[in-house]
Amino acid sequence: MIVFVDLVFFTNFALDATVLLATAKVRKLKPRKRRVAVAAAAGAAYAVAMFWADVPYLYSLGAKVFVSLLMVLLSFGYGGPLAFLRNFGAFYMVNFATLGGVIGLGSLLRSWNDSSGALTITENGGIILDWHMHLGLFAASFFLSLRLFHGTTDIRRKRNDTESLVWKAEVRIDGASWSVPALLDTGNRLYDPLTRTPVMILEASVWEGQLPAGWCTRLQTESADRLVAELDESASASFAWMDRLRLVPYRGVNGSTRMMLAVKPDALVLSREGHPPIEAARVLIGLDGGTLSSDRTYRAILHPELVSAGQEIPAPSQPA
C-alpha cells in the first residue's frame, strides 16, 4: 500500500483546523488564526507519525488525549481549569458529531453488498469494519455534518437565550387569575399616552371565554375601537370587564396609528427561577389577536418597566 504523507498531512490539517474553528464558534471564542494553524499542524503531524514511528504507546488512549489537550491549549490558551475543560469538551463534542455524521452518510450511500462485505466478526466476538470512502465524498459528508451541527447548536443557543428572558406572568382580575409564559422585550416601549402606564401584550385567545364572542378572531383584522363601538347597552351590561377596557394608540409597522384593546387588571405578578416574585399594579394588558410565538414558548410580551419598577413580594414568614 502506497501512502502519500503530504496528502495525509494536509487533509488532517484542514479537518483539524475546521473542527477547532467550529469549537471556537460553539464556545464563542475568537482565537488567532496563527494559533489555530499551529494546533492543526500538531494534530496533522501526529497523524503522519502513525506511518513513520513504530511506537505502540504513541497511539494509546492516553497519547491521543494528550495530543487533543495540546491542540486545545495551543488554540485557545489555558484560561483557568474550568474554561479549559469546557473548551476540551466542546472540541470532542464537535469531533464526535462530525465523525458520526460522516460515518452515517457513508453507510447510507453504501450498497448492501459493500456493507455486508465490510463487516467481519472475529472469534472473540469483536467486530472489524473495513470502511472506505472516496476523498471527495468524505469532504462533502464532513462539511455537511459540520453544517448540520452548527445549525443545531445555533437553534439551541437561540432557544436558550429566549428562555432566559421568559417570565411567568400571572394576571389577576376580580379574584381570578391566568398564568402565561411572558417574554421580556427590552425594546418594548408601549405606554398609554394619557397615564404613561406600561402595556404588556397578551394573546387574546387566553381570555377567549371572558371576551365577547368572536372578538379573539376579529382582533386579527379589525380595529379595536370598532369592536368597542359595537357593544350595545345589553352587551355592555353582560360584559363584566366593560369598565376595565382601554384603547391604547400605537404605531403599526407601516407607520399608521392604530388602536389596541387593553384591559386594566387588579395586579400582575411576575416570577421566575432564582428571582423573587414581583407585583405590578400599574399596568395595562394589551390584546393581540394573533400568536406571539409559533412554538408557544411565550404567550405574552413584557414591558421592561414592569420588571425594573415592580415591587418585590416578601416571602411569607415562617412560624416560630
From TrEMBL:
Q: Write out the GO MF terms.
A: aspartic-type endopeptidase activity
Residues folding into a coiled coil are none
Which keywords are on file for this protein?
Membrane, Transmembrane, Transmembrane helix
Enzyme active site: 185
Q: What does the record list as GO biological process?
A: asexual sporulation; proteolysis
Say which domain of life the source belongs to: Bacteria
- Tell me where the transmembrane regions lie: 6-24, 36-53, 65-85, 92-111, 131-149
Q: Record's InterPro entries? A: SpoIIGA
> What name does UniProt use for this protein?
Sigma-E processing peptidase SpoIIGA
The species is Cohnella pontilimi
